[in-house]
Amino acid sequence: MNLDDELIDLGDRRLRVRRLSPAQDDGLERTTLVFLHEGLGCIEMWRDFPQKLCDATRCRGIVYDRTSYGRSSPWPSDPGVRYMEIEADDILPRLLAALAVDDCVLVGHSDGGTIALNYAARDPEPLRAVVTLAAHAINEPVCVAAIRKAREAFAAGDLRQRLSKYHGDNVDRAFHLWSDAWVAPGFEPMDANGRLPGVLVPLQAVQGEDDEYGSELQLGIIAGKVGGYCETRLVADCGHSPHLQQPSYVLSEVARFIAPLALAG
């Protein structure tokens, strides 16, 4: 763990949190950027994108390991296929309250983007805007096929070994929570029809043109169903991690979107 990381005790679990400060602070009060990692992700797997976005927007940031990932504690009981809804409706609000974050923009990658949309659907008081990177509104056959391949790689040991570096003793629980849900018959990452119309804050949805876990349909569904302003960006020569595969373009677009929304008050 980084020496500056904190373990935030929520009673039934402890979540590892890292606070970020912009390189330059002009003293103006701005919103806090809260980063939600992908399935199988953690703080380290964001690399330097959160810090660069904080620097570009002069906002403070919060990056954390979700339940059962990285150095956070396991789920106290199996959440099953509703793990993203539970994160959005229960865990994230408790974490923001514990950190005294009362004004924020969520930046979510993949599962983290879906959790951000689920959270935004209730129009919560702290939320100012949402950015999603390769979020899932629906479960597509291409996603199921990609996850089946990941399951084969995990069973063969190669993927498990790489992920163990990040998730330690949690690696098996983290992997199976994620993969078992996505391949379950009838699984959907969210109630798109029921929840997306409740997303009223400004939204930027970004996706790679060559995303191996989803098609451009995801952007169309998100933009077509949310209740507020939405802009979409389909990124060329890019797969499932736009912020890592086309970092300059994605950083500039996300910073452009957040900057006019960032000043608190």
Helix share bin: 25-40%
Poorly predicted runs: none
User: Ends: how far apart?
Assistant: 35 Å
Extended strand count: 8
Sequence of secondary-structure elements:
EEEHEHEHEHHHHEHEHH
Quaternary state reads: single chain
Overall pLDDT confidence: 96
The main β sheet shows up as: 8 strands, mixed
Number of helical regions: 10
Strand content: 15-25%
Radius of gyration: 17 Å
Structural class: alpha/beta
Basic shape? globular
Instruction: Provide the spatial order of strands within the biggest beta sheet.
Output: 1-2-4-3-5-6-7-8
Structure in words:
α1 crosses α10, α2 (83-98) crosses α3 and α4 (141-156) crosses α5. Helices cover 38% and strands 17% of the residues. β1 and β2 form a beta hairpin. It has an 8-stranded mixed β-sheet, with helices on both faces. With 265 residues, the protein is of the alpha/beta class. The protein is built from 10 helices and 8 strands. The protein is globular.
